[in-house]
Known about the structure:
6-stranded mixed beta sheet, 16% strand, alpha+beta
Amino acid sequence: MTEAQAHTDVFTQHRPLLFAIAYEMLGSVMEAEDIVQESYLRWQGTAGEAIRSPRSYLATIATRLSIDRLRSAQMQREEYVGPWLPEPFVTGAFPGAAEWATTTEALSVAFMVLVEQLSPVERAVFLLREVFDYEYEEIAAIVEKSEANCRQMFSRARQRLGAGRPRTQARPEEQERLMQQFLDTCATGDLPGLLHVLAEDITVYSDGGGRVAAARRPIHGADKVARFLFGLMRLAPPTTDYHPAWVNGRPGMVVYVDGRPFNTLSVEVSDGRIQAIYIVVNPDKLRHLPPPA
Length: 293
């Protein structure tokens, strides 16, 4: 193996980590891929140099690039039309990231919406510690702050986000069972059956970004949510296909119309009921999805 190939192989080994950091920071699959590509170009520029810890070096590049990208995007986020949801991450569409996608609460839409409250540097500190288990010494070097400052930022962020953290998740098999019941009752128009799987205080969040029709405010309450969902089913054109999938580590589906991604839907399940539903309709956030299998 040549030295250049070995250098590239080191990057390939760490690529899933870099993608995970960038996606958690930005909530965008396409921007995360951009960060990974930029990190690769910078890594190639170090060929022949002695890098003591490639993992720390690459994580530093990806984190700092993500902080810069997030700062430039903050104004757009503040002016976003309707609820903002992350670009859907469909497990299986991104080789090498499957383990991260199925083992971390941090991939959930609920968690990613929650960390939107944090500033770019606060978010980096919180995610590096909470999700990726970095030591404070490493985090301080990455974000160019003191260890004491990083500890303080993490503590404040954890307190700030604590009350809104997603509830304890049900086992995957229970999530799949409830999702299947949800799909069956929606397809058959079974209102009592649908109400049985929805929590009384359920909320639906729909992200159209002002690009397409979508509910601009969250919809609360089982009865209102059920009627909203049945309305969507009635409006679906005959060329609609529903493909079950794991979306952001939760059971859901990708909906295609005329063979093109139309929206994704994912659910949060706990206490034997569906607690929240997240629907992404914004076409700009669906461009990365593969065609139906």
